[in-house]
Amino acid sequence: GVIGLSIARELAGRELQVTLLSRDAARATASWAAGGIFPAQPRGGPPPDGSPLEQFTAVSDRLHRIWAEELEAETGIDTGLRRCGTIAISTDDETLAELGSESARWRRLGVRHDPLLGDEIARLEPALGAAVAAGTVLGGCHLPDETQLRPPRHLAALRSSCRSRGVIVVDNATVAGIECSAGRITAVRFAQPDGHSQTVTADVVCLAAGAWSQGLLAHLGLDLPTRPWRGQILLHRIPPGCLSRVVNLGAGYDYLIPRDDGRLLVGSTIEDAGYDTTTTPEAIGRLEQLVRRLLPQTRLGAAELSWAGLRPGAADGRPTIGPIPGFDNAWVATGHYRAGLHLSTGTAVAVADMIAGRPVDPAMAAFAADRHGTAVLTPPPG
Description:
Mean pLDDT: 91
Low-confidence stretches: 376-382
Strand content: 15-25%
Shape: globular
Helix content: 25-40%
Structural class: alpha+beta
Distance between the termini: 29 Å
Radius of gyration: 21 Å
């Protein structure tokens, strides 16, 4: 996924020899399946009293601008990072309440958000005019600074950059065991679909396996829940330019994301479905109804594609980034939930700094694996 690739790229850029074991091919990862919307950040950076996660998000957001330029220069791939703006709308009491909570947060952070009445929404996005006239869209806010990224392009650019920096990427690798000795991880055993097994030795190991991190960390006697939350997305086509901004309902759990080529991503779901990455007729039907309710007079082609990804959720809503308790050469980066793409750059730099022994922001302690005081279940093996 994007976290592992980003860490590998950053480490290789610091002249380390890196091998990346990936459980899935690129198209099977949650980051490939993501919509790629980055919430608007305060133009002057977050307030000094912002939470550690808000501070970390702002750092990651700034790094994305740098990485996008570097990746295009290195690989020739435009990752599609651009400011597109978002209209956050309310359609009922629930989304109106969500929008009220979001507005309070935007005010606290200093994020630009301009309240809109229905006719103002229709003027900004004429395609929503019919839904406004029908009373479906009640009001909303315009957030001009929200940005979008094309996840498949970004992942392709990361892979290309990793290859050019000498990273060995092994896809479809299932970890079969982790060998430890005297508080150090010495090797990782993995298998591939053809039944071939290998062992790779390493001086330093970082586990960044998304929703599968919990199982890997159990090998080390750690209980660090990274519960998978399934998200389904539907791909439609609309006339190019018909919708110029992202449309979020309330807090943004449901959304329409227009691409320049006329593709329209319709998302999403948050489902406790275990490790099932299939789509369901019920969820896809709901997303189909969503787009037709918001764009009732827009010419829609037949739905082209649907897919699902598994987001790694943490109990307190914060990612886990830092040393693995009980080991002096192992780190973990997981639990990013819906923000993996956005936080991937900051995560990569932070992990690389930790591995290099460089100072990191003391606020990173909020993401430590032992922050709950209950992470260690058993003594580490070896």
